[in-house]
Amino acid sequence: MKSTWIESIAFPKVFLNKKKALQAFRGKTILITGASEGIGNACCILLSKFQVHLILVARSKEKLEALKEVIVKNNSTATILIADLYKEEQVDHLIEHLCTKQTPIDIFISNAGKSIKRPLQNSLLRYHDFTRTNSLNYLAPLKISLALTPILSKQKGQIVNVSALNVLLLPTAQWAAYQASKTAFDQYCRSNQSEWKKMNI
Ligand SMILES: NC(=O)c1ccc[n+]([C@@H]2O[C@H](COP(=O)([O-])OP(=O)(O)OC[C@H]3O[C@@H](n4cnc5c(N)ncnc54)[C@H](OP(=O)(O)O)[C@@H]3O)[C@@H](O)[C@H]2O)c1
């Protein structure tokens, strides 16, 4: 599909140096949320070409199992962890699992996200739109990153936030729940950047 001039400025073409990528990723353990669909799924398929271990998090077991088959065919390995990140107790369970096993995570990709576009007038009785986007787009990745900080520090690891372009733009109407939650996690990451750097993250 041909892109418009504005799309080619906002989303310039990215070329992947496969040799460098293999050097950078081979043997790494990568935790990724929202692996079952969309960007997360595509990201896992791409990364699986570089001999990595992927820890896949989402709610849809069948989709993650199908993804695992592709990953294994590409000579990487995968662990499936089912979690509904709307639910704090499931976030805690996921964290407990990762921390008790002291899984040596090198990269945490925070990708799972919920997007909502709704006029304010239709949102007056929908406080849950705000709690849902806040819990998935902000509080869950925040809690996971806090818990993984000692492991990532030890591994000289990385945190990758799949953010949204609109966090850098002026706020737009009808996107309040989504934009507020994505901006909150973006600010959290950017505020921590210098401190994470001192911790080797
Ligand atoms: N697509 C875009 O145009 C766009 C633009 C800007 C930013 N982004 C950001 O990019 C990221 C990925 O977007 P996408 O378009 O690829 O999304 P998507 O296709 O809707 O996929 C969302 C992923 O998140 C998972 N997820 C949703 N709710 C979950 C929950 N409660 N607990 C655990 N996992 C959950 C889904 O898995 P299950 O349903 O199996 O749980 C799925 O794997 C998001 O953070 C989004 O904000 C996307």
**How many distinct folded domains?**
1
Number of strands: 5
Largest sheet: 5 strands, parallel
CATH class: Alpha Beta
* Parts with pLDDT < 50 across at least 5 consecutive residues: none
Task: Categorize the overall geometry.
Answer: globular
Radius of gyration: 18 Å
Descriptive account of the structure:
This protein is an alpha/beta fold and 201 residues long. It has a single domain (18-198), classed as NAD(P)-binding Rossmann-like Domain (Rossmann fold, 3-Layer(aba) Sandwich). Helix content is 51%, strand content 12%. The chain has 7 helices and 5 strands, in the order ααβαβαβαβαβα. Strands 3-2-1-4-5 form a 5-stranded parallel β-sheet, with helices on both faces. Helix 5 runs parallel beside helix 6 and helix 6 runs parallel beside helix 7 (176-198). It is globular. The model has no long low-confidence stretch (mean pLDDT 96). The structure holds NADP nicotinamide-adenine-dinucleotide phosphate. The site of NADP nicotinamide-adenine-dinucleotide phosphate has 24 residues, from helix 3.
Quick recap:
The chain is of the alpha/beta class and about 200 residues long. It has helices at about 5-10, 20-25, 40-45, 60-75, 90-100, 125-155, 175-200, and strands at about 30-35, 55-60, 75-80, 105-110, 160.
